[in-house]
Design a protein that fits this description.
- The protein is α/β, with parallel strands linked by helices.
- It has one domain: TIM Barrel, CATH 3.20.20.70.
- It contains eleven helices and eight strands.
């Protein structure tokens, strides 16, 4: 199956929040993305609501339920009690847990599963009891022992943190090394019975190599690069370009 695309709407929301105005509309651009072929929408609500607001979540939930019932809603966040209660209220198809401090500008590392596994296990069980798929943010550094520990939490998938890969856009040799580390981490996850997602600083340029190295990659979640391209190409055409980069025929 081709890798699917989930469009992260945080950058759209951050642009909206620069003014006390309702545009650009998170709902409208989410609708355009889904109509153009995106398989889902992703948000990462933070306690300070500096981009996605809590009030956006029921709107996006309704958009998917009413107009695109085949699509998925993915909510990312640190597993605080407030975040878990939010997920239980909105009922996304997938929850991606990340180890972020609330003050971080963006996600920049995966969980330390040797340290955090015991904490994550009951949280994963709580979310899965409500019917949500659970993915855990993981460093793609080839630490095969850590992948095995991830499986023990009960999670369904890992999401490979691809920031270092995207960050060496001007160094092909380094990109190739990091890509192989990501690939070995994914191979270990598949061997352990886990699904694999990926996200952070992925672009039309670097996606094809990632998908080629990890052909069973289930989903990529992309926001910053996709939103930047949408300023040039428009949201619909940008989504189609990213879907093609994932190996889809659109």
């Amino acid at each position: 199956m081709p890798t699917t695309l989930s469009v992260n709407l945080n950058a759209v929301a951050m642009l909206r929040n620069r003014r006390d105005l309702p545009w650009p509309s998170v709902e409208a651009l989410g609708r355009i993305a889904l109509a153009a072929g995106a398989a889902g929408l992703t948000v990462h609500p933070r306690p300070d609501q500096r981009h996605i607001r809590f009030s956006d979540l029921p709107v996006i939930r309704a958009l998917i339920d009413d107009e695109f019932p085949q699509a998925e809603f993915n909510i990312e966040g640190y597993p605080s009690e407030d975040f878990l209660a939010l997920c239980e209220r909105i009922e996304p198809e997938q929850v991606t847990l990340v180890p972020d401090d609330p003050s971080q500008a963006t996600s920049d590392h995966g969980f330390d599963f040797r340290r955090d596994g015991e904490m994550l296990t009951p949280i994963v069980a709580r979310l899965k009891k409500k019917g949500m798929r659970v993915s855990l943010f993981a460093d793609g550094d080839g630490d095969l022992e850590a992948v095995a520990l991830t499986k023990a939490t009960g999670a369904d998938r890992i999401e490979l943190y691809t920031g270092p890969y995207g960050g060496c856009f001007d160094d092909p040799a380094k990109a190739a090394v990091i890509l192989e580390e990501l690939g070995r981490t994914a191979d270990a996850a598949f061997s352990a019975g886990l699904g694999v997602n990926a996200g952070h600083d992925l672009t039309v340029a670097n996606l094809p190599a990632l998908v080629k190295r990890i052909p069973r990659l289930a989903e990529v979640s992309i926001g910053h690069g996709l939103t930047a391209d949408a300023l040039e190409y428009g949201m619909a055409e940008t989504v189609r370009r990213f879907c093609r980069a994932c190996g889809q025929s659109v």
